[in-house]
Design a protein that fits this description.
This protein is α/β, with parallel strands linked by helices. The protein is about 20% helix and about 35% strand. The protein has helices spanning about 5-15, 160-170, 210-220, 235-250, 265-270, 310-330, 385, and strands at about 5, 25-30, 40, 50-55, 55-60, 70-80, 95, 110, 115-120, 125-130, 140, 150-155, 175-180, 180-190, 190-195, 205, 225-230, 250-255, 280, 285, 290-295, 300-305, 340-345, 350, 355-365, 370-375, 390-395, 400, 405-410.
Length: about 400
C-alpha cells in the first residue's frame, strides 16, 4: 500500500533524483520564452555605449551653475537620437537634446525643457533657467553605467522571461542556446475518447481533456511535447509506445492508469522496462496520487504519473512536474511558485492532516488582497480552473480559515 508523504517530501525526492539534461539547442529569440539558458552571455560593448541624455532638454556645462543665479545660455544647435550634435559646447552655450541622444562634447548636465524658458533675439536663441533647478551631472546616462564590455550579464540556468529576451536583443543576440527538454505525454483508459472524434460519446465514455491541458502547461514551462494520445488498456501496445518514447524523450508523463486496478497496466509495463517507479499518496487535495521513477537507457528518462481527474492533474503538474522540468533544465532561480499574503473573503474549508489547495481568485479590495474560493472544489470540474488566479494554502494542521483571517496564496 502506498505511503502518505508531504509536498515537501515530493520536492526532496525530485531534487535528489533529477540532474540537468545535457542536450541543448540554439533558438531564435521568438521561440526562447520559458526556456532555460544554457550559455553565458557577455556584453560585447559598454551599455550605454556613450553618454546620453535621460530627458528632453538642454545640455550644457555644469560650470555654468552659479548658486542662486539665473543662467542664460545661447542655443548652439540640436542633438537628436541617431543624429548627434557634432560641435563642442563652449562656455555660455547649450544644445537642445532629445532623450537617448549622444551628449555633445563639453556638456555634462541636462535640464528638462519644462524647467526653462526660451528667448529669441536678433543674436539667436537663448535658454534661461534658475541654477537651483538642476544639479551638476543630472539627467545624464553615463557610458557603461549599466554594464561594461566583457561583463557576464546572463548566466546558465536563467528561465528566459520577456525581460531576459529583451536584454539579449539589446546585446545584439538573435539566438540563444537553451536546454532542450522533451516530454512524452499520454493518457490511459478505454473510457477515454479523443476530442473531435466523430459521433456521440459512447455510454460511459469521456473526452480526454488531460492531454490538451497538460500539453499547454508543459509548453508554457519551456519543454517540447510529444503527445502519445490515449494508450489503450493493453500492455503490449503500451510497452511499444513507451519504449519508443523513452528513446527520444526526457520525461514520460502519464495521467491515470497507474493505480492498483486490474486494468492498470502501466505499472507492470514500466517494471518490465526496468523502471524503478515508486508510488505515493501525497497529503494534499487535490492531487493525492503521485508516482515517480527513472527508466534506464542510453540517457536519463524520468517517469511521472499524475492523477486522472483533470483539476488534480493540473494542480499536481504545477507543483511537481514544473519543478522537475526546472531541475532537468538546470534552473538556478528559486523553484517555488510565487506566494502572496491575503485575507479570506469568506470562510475556507480545510481538513487537518493534509494540505488543502483551495482554488479561487485574488482581488484588490480597499487596499488589501482578498481571496475568494470558488463555489466548488471538485477535482473533476475544469470550470473551477478557468476563472481562478490563485490557490489558498491550508497546511496540515488547518481545519479551515475564517472570513477576514489571513491566508497564504500561491499565484497561478
Amino acid at each position: 500500500m502506498a505511503d502518505y508523504i508531504t509536498i515537501e517530501t515530493v520536492y526532496d525526492i525530485l531534487e535528489r533524483s533529477i540532474a540537468p539534461v545535457p542536450a541543448t539547442e540554439l533558438l531564435p529569440l521568438s521561440a526562447a520564452e520559458g526556456r532555460i539558458l544554457a550559455e553565458t552571455i557577455t556584453a560585447p560593448f559598454d551599455a550605454p555605449a556613450f553618454d546620453n541624455s535621460a530627458m528632453d532638454g538642454f545640455a550644457f556645462r555644469a560650470a555654468e551653475l552659479a548658486p542662486g543665479a539665473a543662467v542664460r545660455l545661447r542655443v548652439a544647435g540640436v542633438s537628436y537620437a541617431g543624429a548627434p550634435f557634432n560641435g563642442v559646447v563652449a562656455p555660455g552655450e547649450a544644445v537642445r537634446i532629445m532623450t537617448g541622444a549622444k551628449m555633445p562634447e563639453g556638456a555634462d548636465t541636462v535640464i528638462p525643457f519644462e524647467r526653462t524658458r526660451s528667448e529669441e533675439t536678433p543674436e539667436g536663441a537663448w535658454v534661461v533657467f534658475d541654477a537651483q533647478r538642476v544639479k551638476p551631472g543630472e539627467n545624464v546616462r553615463l557610458q557603461g553605467e549599466e554594464m561594461r564590455a566583457g561583463d557576464a550579464v546572463m548566466e546558465p540556468g536563467e528561465v528566459l522571461t520577456p525581460a531576459w529576451i529583451g536584454l539579449a536583443a539589446v546585446l545584439g543576440r538573435a539566438e540563444l542556446r537553451c536546454r532542450r527538454l522533451t516530454v512524452a505525454l499520454f493518457s490511459t483508459g478505454d473510457e477515454l475518447v479523443a476530442p473531435g472524434t466523430p459521433g456521440p460519446l459512447p455510454a460511459g465514455a469521456v473526452y480526454n481533456a488531460n492531454s490538451a491541458l497538460l500539453a499547454a502547461q508543459i509548453r508554457r514551462w519551456g519543454a517540447d511535447v510529444v503527445d502519445l494520445g490515449i494508450l489503450p488498456d493493453d500492455p503490449e501496445v503500451q510497452r511499444a509506445a513507451l519504449s519508443e518514447a523513452a528513446r527520444r524523450c526526457d520525461f514520460l508523463v502519464a495521467t491515470g492508469g497507474v493505480g492498483e486496478g486490474e486494468h492498470d497496466y502501466t505499472n507492470r509495463v514500466l517494471a518490465e522496462m526496468g523502471g524503478g517507479v515508486t508510488h505515493h499518496h501525497v497529503s494534499m487535495r487535490p492531487g493525492k496520487p503521485f508516482s515517480f521513477g527513472r527508466i534506464p537507457g542510453e540517457h536519463p528518462v524520468w517517469f511521472m504519473a499524475l492523477p486522472g481527474n483533470p483539476v488534480a492533474a493540473a494542480v499536481s503538474a504545477a507543483l511537481f512536474l514544473r519543478r522537475a522540468l526546472l531541475l532537468a533544465g538546470g534552473a538556478t532561480a528559486p523553484l517555488n511558485l510565487p506566494k502572496a499574503p491575503a485575507v479570506a473573503g469568506r470562510r475556507i474549508k480545510g481538513r487537518t492532516g493534509r494540505t488543502d489547495l483551495v482554488r479561487g481568485r485574488l482581488e484588490m479590495e480597499a487596499g488589501r488582497l482578498v481571496f475568494t474560493p470558488t463555489a466548488s472544489q471538485s477535482s473533476g470540474q475544469l470550470t473551477t480552473l478557468t476563472g481562478m488566479n490563485a490557490m489558498a494554502v491550508l497546511g496540515l494542521d488547518s481545519a479551515g480559515v475564517e472570513e477576514g483571517a489571513s491566508v497564504e496564496c500561491l499565484l497561478i
